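Course assignment 3, question 2. Fill in each field.
Student: A.L.
Task: Predict the tertiary structure for the chain below.
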Amino acid sequence: MLRSRIARLAAIIAVQTQLASFSGMDAVAEQTSAPRLPNIVLILADDLGWSDLVCYGADLHETPHIDRLAATGMRFTDAYAASVCSPARASLLTGKHHARLGITIWRERSLSPQPDQKLTPPPAVSDLPGAEVTIAEALQSAGYQTGFVGKWHLGSAENYPEVHGFDTNIGGTLWGAPSTYFYPYRGPFNAETRYVPHLDAGAAGEYLTDRLTDEALKFIDRAGERPFFLFLAHHAPHTPIQARPDLEQHYLKKLGPNHLHGNPAYAAMVHSLDESVGRVVEHLEHRQLTDHTLVMFLSDNGGYLRTAKLDVTTNYPLRSGKGSLYEGGVRIPLIVRWPGVTPPGSRCAEPVSVADLYPTVLAATGVKGDAADNAQLDGLNLAPLLRDPAATLDRDAIYHHYPHYYATTTPASAIRMRDWKLIEYFEDGHLELYNLQDDLGESQNLADVRAGKRDELHRQLVNWRADVGALVPSPNPDWKP
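Answer field:
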């Protein structure tokens, strides 16, 4: 442990020295006509459903800025994340499947598993291990200024963003959700500690989504002429469902009986998220950075369906929502704009994963990363797709693993191989098989009709779990029906 901390400290000192001389490097690059390193902007929404954006089919919501980003870049229709937040974030940052990392559930639940279930979930890693090399660490080692703003949810203080390659951390903490979206961001959970840190100076009525955007723009300005990596991880539209009153009133007036989406407060939260994306994109244009910046926008899992008191969103035409391994729980919006590479207004239907963003960023920047760590990456470089949306990746399947309980599911694993998808439920071992091309809503279980395909996918799923070391639940000897 001491040796690793000394090595990390030495690396930080080396990076600081490199950053201090970066202006001189710029001058040399200018004289030798070396290509300019692209900036990377990654904007992550929390619990935003696949159909919550207008460009993905939303009817009540208004998302003109995100739609415009899609119109100038590429929209992925078959992008996947984990079914809950922390696993998806860990996979995104490392390029590894969350089952390989052992981070299979959000942090609080990993420390306090649910009792009294038929199965006992396997132990889960609560903090992103310091030995893992993140996107931020790879870019930081190449001279990038790295900034994190928003929701972290990947560990306690000794594993905050600063330890994982971020020069700046605004708001990143162990908590997964704010108590309130209004300043001072404290609430009934714990008035002293459950709040968004580093945002002490604010004004009454200040809204968290707006404030995090303010901090993101400041980071871009502070980067100056250095290439930068900004990870803006919004809390919105995660619960608590709280919106700016002016926007909520707008959607209350707009809401009609035929809208699929029916929650005005949630629509207003998505509206604020859209405004944030617009402000970041406009700031890049103002700073004349658009042509040198790769922008990625996505969600960490499927949309959250309902609280005890209200419906939150709908993922229609997809089945179910957050926590589930049906499409509504794991399929997410993903938009990428890479000027000079992505054809404007393009659409890609190739199945992709959040783990793919890590190798894609390495390819876009020319940063090599850590060779030993790269050998274990599960993600693939998306550059071929970004150049040609009709291209395919050399990938056999995409896998999901959630060996825990949630309101929308019992413990399960899943595999998608092209049009076919199989889900295995661990409580009773039953299998469900769907053809997503013919049945996007997963309404017709073909496991008995297509037994050969069922068994083929199940064998591959079992082999994959063994390959990545995915843990499965065990019988609970104390459970009583």
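Instructor remarks: The first helix runs from residue 2 to 20. The chain has one domain: 38-394.
Grade: pending
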